[in-house]
Specification:
The structure is a single chain. The protein is mainly alpha-helical and 140 residues long. It has a domain of 66 residues. Helix content is 88%, strand content 0%. The protein has 3 helices and no strands. Helix 1 crosses helix 2. The protein is rod-shaped, with a radius of gyration of 47 Å. The protein starts with a helix and ends with a helix.
């Protein structure tokens, strides 16, 4: 029985020794597994973050496309209103400066009578600038 006990003790010691050796061999493998697990978690967090950014950018793009469509639909109305205001400006200018209309009509009739334009009959600089600024934008 003592021989049996000694044999079992020896087997147990050998098993403990082998377990210790295997644990030492497993230590680098466990460390590698932990590094890979940490890297995997970091990649997963980064992926979730990037997907969130992509979804946010997609939402922003959809919003901007809808806004662009809305503005494109409003553009013809704005252009029509712009033309209306442009004509209104001409009418108001002509009401404020009726002498420009008369002066232009007189100059036309004088030009028809005379073959050459009169050199000394040029209008003053202020009136010419006002008239030309309004008429120059009506070249459409």
């Amino acid at each position: 029985m003592q021989a049996e006990l000694a044999r079992m003790t020896r087997e147990r010691d050998q098993a403990v020794q082998r377990n210790s050796e295997l644990s030492q061999d497993l230590l680098p493998v466990r460390e590698q597994r932990d590094r890979v697990t940490t890297a995997h978690k970091n990649c997963k967090r980064m992926l979730v973050h990037v997907l969130g950014q992509r979804n946010e950018a997609g939402h922003e793009e959809d919003t901007l496309r809808a806004r662009q469509l809305e503005l494109e639909q409003q553009l013809p109305n704005a252009e029509e209103y712009n033309e209306y205001l442009h004509e209104e400006i001409h009418q108001l200018h002509n009401q404020l400066h009726p002498h420009h209309l008369l002066g232009a009509a007189e100059l036309d009739s004088e030009d028809e009578m005379d073959e050459g334009p009169e050199l000394g009959a040029a209008p003053s600089g202020d009136e010419d600038e006002e008239g030309s600024s309004v008429d120059s934008d009506h070249s459409e």
